[in-house]
Amino acid sequence: MSKNIFFKIFIEDFALEAGFELSKTVENCLDFGGPWLGLELITQLGLAELFNQLMDGGREDVPWSLMAMVLVIAWLVQPAGQTD
């Protein structure tokens, strides 16, 4: 599944259901911006707060909520099973 198809199906549908207008477009983006864009997306959608609420902290050095964000960003940048 292409990144553009994922964006079209998931992000646009989610944003429209939540009442957001998608008026910004991204054209000619470079690969180095993928992780930053993923972090911005997670922040704008409120997933960072959701992960913090759902995943209790323990004695670990790296909180599980942060690891969840890293895994989501990694998947958004390079979906599993897709090779370029």
Describe this structure in words.
With 84 residues, the chain is mainly alpha-helical. It has one domain (3-77). Helix content is 58%, strand content 0%. The chain has helices spanning 3-17, 34-45, 47-54, 64-77. The longest helix is centred in the first third of the chain and has 15 residues, at 3-17. The protein is globular. The protein starts with a helix and ends in a 7-residue tail after the last helix. The model has no long low-confidence stretch (mean pLDDT 77).
List the helices and strands and how they pair.
Layout: H1 3-17, H2 34-45, H3 47-54, H4 64-77
Helix pairs in contact: 2-4, 3-4
In short, what is this structure?
58% of the residues lie in helices and 0% in strands. With 84 residues, it is mainly alpha-helical.
Number of β-strand runs? 0
Distance between the termini: 12 Å
As residue ranges, the low-confidence spans are none
Number of helical regions: 4
What would you call the shape? globular
The ordered string of helix (H) and strand (E) elements is: HHHH
Please give the share of residues in helix.
55-70%
Biggest sheet: strands, sense, closure? none
The average pLDDT is 77
Number of domains: 1
* Strand fraction: under 5%
Secondary structure class reads mainly alpha
Q: What is Rg?
A: 14 Å
Throw out a few tags for this protein.
4 helices, 58% helix, 84 residues
